Amino acid sequence: MKAKTLYDKLWESHVVREEPDGTALLYIDRHLVHEVTSPQAFEGLRLAHRPVWRASANLATADHNVPTTDRSSGIADPVSRVQVETLDQNCADFQIVEFGMNDPRQGIVHVMGPEQGATLPGMTVVCGDSHTSTHGAFGALAHGIGTSEVEHVLATQCLIQKKSRSMLVVVDGPAGPGVTAKDIVLAIIGRIGTAGGTGYAIEFSGQAIRDLSIEGRMTVCNMAIEAGARAGFVAVDDKTIEYVRGRPFSPSAQHWDQAVAYWQTLHSDDGAEFDEVVVIPAAEILPQVTWGTSPEMVSPVSDKVPDPRDEADPVKADGMRRALSYMGLEAGTPITQIRLDKVFIGSCTNSRIEDLRAAAAVARGRRVAESIKQALVVPGSGLVKAQAEQEGLHRVFIDAGFEWREPGCSMCLAMNADRLEPGERCASTSNRNFEGRQGKGGRTHLVSPAMAAAAAIAGHFVDIRDLQV
Amino acid sequence: MDKFRTFTGIVCPLDRSNVDTDAIIPKQFLKSIKRTGFGPNLFDEWRYLDHGEPGMDNSTRPRNPDFVLNDPRYAGASILLTRENFGCGSSREHAPWALADYGFKVIIAPSYADIFFNNSFKNGLLPIVLNAATVDQLFEQANGSHALELTVDLDAQQIRAGDAAPIGFDVDAFRKHCLLEGLDDIGLTLQHVDDIRAYEVRRRQQAPWLFE
Ligand code: SF4
Fold this sequence. Notes:
Chain A is an alpha/beta fold. Chain A has helices at 6-12, 39-47, 78-94, 109-116, 147-156, 181-192, 207-210, 214-222, 238-244, 253-263, 314-327, 353-363, 382-390, 393-400, 449-458, and strands at residues 15-18, 23-27, 30-33, 58-61, 97-99, 124-127, 141-144, 158-162, 165-172, 200-205, 231-233, 276-281, 288-290, 298-300, 342-345, 374-377, 403-404, 425-428, 443-446. Chain B is globular and about 65 Å long.
């Protein structure tokens, strides 16, 4: 039998039917729903008098618009409020389980799903959100979809898809000191480019990936989309199975052993062929900081802001010039001399308990620099928040001068009140440094949680390896 | 969805690579629960000098004279010419909604981000991939003192300009069919209800925990 990739296995087990040209109807096991990309889909169902195909395959929460401050008085912005209320109403009407704004299990959809065991190995997982790739950390085929497809999945439990090409990214050897999952994925994007994965499904492998916890793997898969790939995933191993064990939506005792036996087959076979293989020695990866307006514009923290004159490709050089001008940076400035106005620790990339622990380890017993106007810590879900509080992490942050907030997307995309003002510079643990992403004119540098906390303390970037934690 | 017909339109040259969906339609406009009305806020942060919010009267806002959409040469453009990796970033379908609502019917670029590419077809918007050299040539023509007009013929898979040799393009046969016929994907899929049910029966046997 031909050796198969993990992608082959995930794909083949979900094909409902296939046309001669390779267009397939793919079955979807889990559909996650949030308030921003779903209202028009539910409206479409109503207009066409179509029911939801399998309500129990769906799980919803409100995350993008919810305030991260006191929620007892509801949402002040009337437009945001209507959107969140519309989700509540749609879920009630179509009998979809929803963790509403005041439910302790509410959170960023990509933090909440895995935490509930709603994401399982071998599943197809979709959501009207590009960072659905996060769920690939479980050996699942997970990707973002548009609103028309949200409606399609609600109505049919399927998607019309064509198989992507396959790419294997091997991060070889152990990661060096201070190098986290975030640094690994930023370095991968720096290497292959934001369009490097377009048309591919990426399997991440190699010792540095296997060494990561499941949370770290989620960080890596989360940003597969920033490398252009809709889906990124990691083979199942014992860590995956242990993570899933005993969660509310995990298999019951009756089916557990059968599930585990199946999950253990979810890896690429020896000798399986990929359309593209990229090998990156982990030892070459240093803590990363983005300096531009695209995640591929990234450098090791020990480097300088690059010079567009050193770039041979004129289109790229032009993009660099535009980025540096937007970012208000001079070529040749050491990255550690970049001074910050705000710090944001949160988002579906880095707001899980491990991320908060890593940031708290840096913040413990220190103070946020006077020059920092605001340093936010926004846990990914109500359950992450509760866990952090149980461990006393909130005290560490508050004592150091960070603000401790309610869970949600927050300043990752600034749809609620948390945002940058024009010209403000932010060290952010999120995933996108696009122009205006964190507020019009705002300047975003993407970093790991430890690097963000260290930047908050120093007021500028510091090489985490120089810091005694 | 309306059927996609052959048309002739003006080309608007947006000379940037990696244009992301946050730039195409900034997040504050995503709070709408409708599919329409996004056109006036297409490229909002580049197009206007002030900060846009939903519900503003866009006709009175100060425009950025340096932004190509505001150039009178390209008024009424229905073809957007741009660079590689167009539509990267967020999966928001509001991006093709905004482009279509503004009046664009076709985009021409060397490459697109996957989700955006996919979303476009579902909204009657045709994203055409041409090689970088051809895109360069079109930019040169579109940047001239007279706007470039192109005829896009999806059926023949050709772009034509005056007497110049037509430029051919590839398009997935199924997507082409859906665009030309104005077909709704859900309706098509629901013709296969029996297949879906049969799959569920099979799958429930292999992986019962997925149906708990
Ligand atoms: S945290 Fe940011 S990237 Fe993640 S789902 Fe929310 S807005 Fe999107």
